[in-house]
Write a structure and sequence with these properties.
Layout lengths: L2 E6 L2 E6 L2 H14 L6 E5 L2 E5 L1 H7 L1 H8 L11 E3 L5 H13 L9 H10 L3 H12 L7 H10 L3 H13 L1 H4 L3 H4 L3 H8 L11 H14 L1 H12 L9 H8 L2 H4 L2 H13 L11 E5 L17 E5 L4 E5 L8 E7 L2 E7 L1 E3 L6 E3 L3 E6 L4 E4 L6 H12 L3 E4 L6 E5 L2 E5 L1 E4 L2 E4 L3 E3 L8 E2 L2 E5 L2 E5 L2 E3 L5 E3 L3 E5 L4 E5 L10 E5 L2 E5 L10 E5 L4 E5 L10 E5 L2 E5 L2 E5 L2 E6 L3 E5 L4 E5 L12
Parallel strand pairs: 3-5
Antiparallel strand pairs: 1-2, 3-4, 6-7, 7-8, 9-10, 10-13, 11-12, 13-14, 15-16, 16-17, 17-20, 18-19, 21-24, 22-23, 23-26, 24-25, 26-27, 28-29, 29-30, 30-31, 32-33, 33-36, 34-35, 36-37
Helix pairs in contact: 2-3, 5-6, 7-8, 11-13, 12-13
Keywords: Kelch repeat, Repeat
Protein name: BTB domain-containing protein
Organism: Mytilus galloprovincialis
Length: 592
């Protein structure tokens, strides 16, 4: 029953559990039947009736209108104009007032925000903005930036600006970019932390030219002002020369004169420095790294400026194999899960899983549909066979090395979404037939395969020092000078036109580091790390090498196996490794 009776000292107290619902249902029925309505809302010539008592309960705007002596409060049926949004949006907001239920869609969310902003319904407005944030992407972030500024959403504003900064080379290719105002473009060009990718300031210059070409007549007068915000000294000469060929430049020679003057006087102008981070993803918790050994789902991010590690959203799966790569400004991870099988096959691998990390929303998204079936298969096989992957920063191609097989996967971008083509098989190398746990890097579009374990038999496996280069232009393999010592399960990076081989394992875990000069085809040792490391990865940032985690020993040059949380960085100018802030979680086989 809806009535609850409680005995008191003076009698009884009756409570109706459904009292609030009865009132709401009663008002809804009155509104639906247009009974006892005492206010008329006009929206684009459509009349919508309501009860002022219901309006002022939900809306501070109406509360002020009807309670502080404004003219509407004394009228028997005031007529109020609300043309800021569509009649459908107004009706849905009124339905929310009378029922407590509001449906928000991509088609209605902007109108609802406009209305809730006007009517001072802050809670509903905030929820609408939270919904809008979920659809933020490179195709709409510039418009959302404007919208967030107009209707005072700090959170959406910050996220939209962050996305513009982080994916600027993709955003300049969108339709929305062509329609931004000169003032908005000027604000973007003033950002010193734009992420520009491999083409650097060329992408900024090309973006401004593309914006000009969309409406030359209206924009040519402010084009010179926009160019003042481009770091022209860092734009390549061929890209500048392309501008000279444009017809509008023939009629505005003063612009080219201004460009030449700016390039000659801004020689000390520093390049842009985007905010970059290191991500460590998954890995093993203990020194045992078998398929079913304790693994991690946690992900950490390192901030270079603050020298601090913070945890971000965890991986959706407990992965046995993880590879992470940055393609067109997006972070992808590939992994597969292992489960127990039978006596003939102790471990069974699942199909590969692919995820994309949205660093604006801090979520991992399913990215399986981004990969063509053959690409998914060769990556999966590579992980199972302890092969290696490498990404070419210039072309955004993925190269996969799995025993003798080598594959190339192209990537394309459409409206900011990355897709990966079918895998293309390249010439194989028989010398790599029983190799695993090697390192792969790209240097000037040439692929280098370094070291690894060579399997002679099931019981005979030993590290090697061999180096092979695949000449992508000639489509052939070339044997290069071997490293100074054998290495497997090590990390290799490219910095300043040199290839660095860091740490690893042969008969024991290694501290040693050696550097390869592709011009002279020679290796030489540089300063060793402070700690022996295998099963780890390195990254390069601002001409320094960062090494994190991995397997090591409990004490200097020996002791029990230990998984590290430490991070150290190599500075080539002083040839020295120094410790940085450790990760929050010790881990090995981590991918950055």
């Amino acid at each position: 029953e809806s009535l609850v009776v409680k005995v008191t000292d003076n009698g009884i107290k009756i409570n109706n559990k459904n009292g609030g619902g009865l009132v709401l249902d009663g008002f809804y029925n009155l509104w639906k039947d247009k009974l006892l309505c005492d206010v008329k809302l006009m929206c684009h010539n459509e009349e919508i009736y309501a009860h002022r008592s219901m309006l002022l309960i939900y809306s501070d705007y109406f509360k002020a209108m009807f309670t502080i002596g404004l003219s509407e409060s004394s009228q028997s049926m005031p007529q109020i104009q609300l043309n800021e949004a569509s009649p459908e949006a107004l009706k849905s907001l009124l339905l929310y007032m009378y029922t407590g239920s509001l449906s928000v869609t991509n088609d209605t969310v902007q109108d609802l925000i406009v209305l809730t902003d006007l009517l001072q319904m802050r809670d509903v407005k905030e929820q609408c903005f939270l919904y809008m944030e979920k659809s933020l992407d490179v195709t709409n972030c510039l418009g959302m930036w404007d919208f967030a500024e107009t209707y005072s959403s700090t959170t959406l504003l910050v996220k939209a600006i962050c996305l513009v900064k982080r994916r600027f080379p993709v955003i300049v290719e969108t339709e929305e970019f062509l329609n931004i105002s000169s003032s908005r473009l000027g604000k973007i060009l003033k950002f010193e932390d734009l992420s520009l990718g491999n083409n650097g300031e060329d992408d900024v210059f090309k973006g401004v030219v593309r914006w000009l070409e969309h409406d030359v007549t209206e924009r040519i007068d402010c084009f010179k002002d926009m160019l003042k915000l481009v770091k022209l000294i860092h734009v390549s000469s061929p890209v500048i020369n392309e501008l000279k060929q444009m017809m509008c430049m023939q009629e505005n020679l003063d612009i080219m004169t201004s460009i030449n003057f700016q390039r000659s006087t801004d020689k000390d102008c520093p390049p842009r420095h985007p905010i970059q981070c290191i991500y460590v993803v998954g890995g093993y918790l203990q020194s045992r790294t078998g398929p079913m050994c304790p693994r991690l789902k946690t992900v950490e991010r390192y901030n270079f400026k603050d020298n601090v590690w913070k945890q971000t959203e965890t991986l959706p799966v407990l992965a046995s194999g993880v590879q992470v790569f940055n393609i067109h400004g997006k972070l992808f991870t590939t992994s597969f899960e292992m489960s127990h099988g039978d006596s003939l096959m102790p471990y069974v691998s699942s199909t590969p899983g692919f995820y994309e990390y949205d660093n604006i929303q801090n979520i991992w998204k399913d990215a399986n549909d981004c990969f063509a079936p053959s690409s998914a298969k060769v990556i999966h096989d590579c992980l199972q066979k302890s092969g290696s992957l490498a990404v070419c920063p210039r072309t955004n191609k993925i190269y996969i090395m799995s025993e003798t097989d080598i594959y190339c996967i192209n990537s394309t971008v459409n409206d900011g979404e990355v897709t990966f083509s079918e895998a293309e098989q390249l010439p194989s190398l028989q010398e790599l037939e029983s190799y695993s746990n090697h390192a792969t890097v790209l240097h000037k579009d040439d692929l280098y395969v370094l070291g690894g374990d060579r399997r002679i038999s099931a019981s005979e496996i030993f590290p090697v020092a061999s180096v092979f280069m695949f000449d992508c232009s000639e489509n052939k393999w070339i044997t290069k000078t071997s490293m100074q010592e054998p290495r497997a399960r090590f990390s290799a990076v490219v910095m300043d036109d040199y290839i660095y081989a860091v740490g690893g394992f042969n008969s024991r875990r290694l501290r040693s580091v050696e550097r390869y000069d592709p011009v002279t085809d020679t290796w030489r040792y540089i300063e060793s790390m402070n700690k022996e490391r295998s099963h780890f990865k390195c990254v390069v940032h601002l001409n320094k090498i960062y090494a994190m985690g991995g397997k090591s020993y409990s004490r200097y040059e020996g002791g029990a196996r230990k998984v590290l949380s430490s991070c150290e960085v190599y500075d080539p100018e002083i040839d020295m490794w120094t410790y940085k802030a450790p990760m929050n979680q010790a881990r090995c086989e981590t991918i950055k």
